[in-house]
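Pilot study result, target chain (341 residues):
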Amino acid sequence: MQKFIENHLYKRSILSYLLFPISIKYSILQKCRRRFYQVFSSLIYKSKIKVISIGNIVSGGSGKTPFTIFITRYLREKGFKVAVSHRGYKGKFEKKNILISDRNNIFDSARDAGDEAYLLASKLKGIPVIVGRDRKESIKILEEKYLDLDYIILDDSFQHLKVFHDLDFVVFNEIGGIGNGFVLPAGILRESISALKFADYLVFNGEGKIPEKLLKFGKPVLKGNYKIKRFYDINEKEISLETLKRSEIALLSAIGMPKSFEDTIQKSGLKFKKHFLFADHYDFKDKRILQNIEKELEKDKIDFLLTTEKDFAKLQFMKHNLPLVIVEVGFKLSNIEEMKM
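Predicted structure:
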């Protein structure tokens, strides 16, 4: 399945061209939608609090949530009061609007709010995190509860046009880029690349050359990448890199860009025997899946199974005997001085 996705969405194939007419219609629809809100701007909710949108124009992983964590911490360190809004994708409260953490606690509801939302709450302790698909309602709840807020950060909101954004950051991953350049369903683009003219900053997650297609819009580009901060087990005990280098390891992930996870691991000097791949946001609720993985690890004499913090947000609540090691990564910008807030 992963190979099929790569051949179809990241490279132009016969299937891509067959689906291209549908992509044109979808792209036109998205352009008309943006134009509609330009003409009827009175329908857009404008908060008294500055709203920052972190988004992308591709489907799948580009690094939005890690950048959201980075920018939230950056603003807090500058002395600003910040809150975060997340859709709560595939969580229990996606159709509601509830706080899953405040300035003092992470609430029990956080574990049911979706993997990315839980990750935000757990990594941003002391910062309110609210979930719900209706961003306008989330903002209103935050406005009422926290009168001293300076910024509200919306994770995954570039296409959410019902709320005014003071700043739009659009994130790209070097590995996936813009795929084959086609809009869904022929490619990975959520809307035409021309939508980048509405962005304030482009965030390029990688160390390679920035594609010319992104530079032609004249938007400032912030360059960043992931760095592994530590490896730790389910009991929060740190595992040294040297220990992992002497061991047999495998990977487990259910993220939008698994190749990015592989590259991060390989750049640290580690080699892995296999990678257990699942669809983005896979919930791991089928016990047989985890049992089968356990059997394969035993058969291949794997010592450690490395996974992402996003996946551990779900796996920590499952019953299993997997020798999990969680990979904590941090996102850093190499040209942060070019970011004007």
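One observation from the pilot: The two ends are 42 Å apart (CA to CA). A full batch analysis is planned for the follow-on phase.
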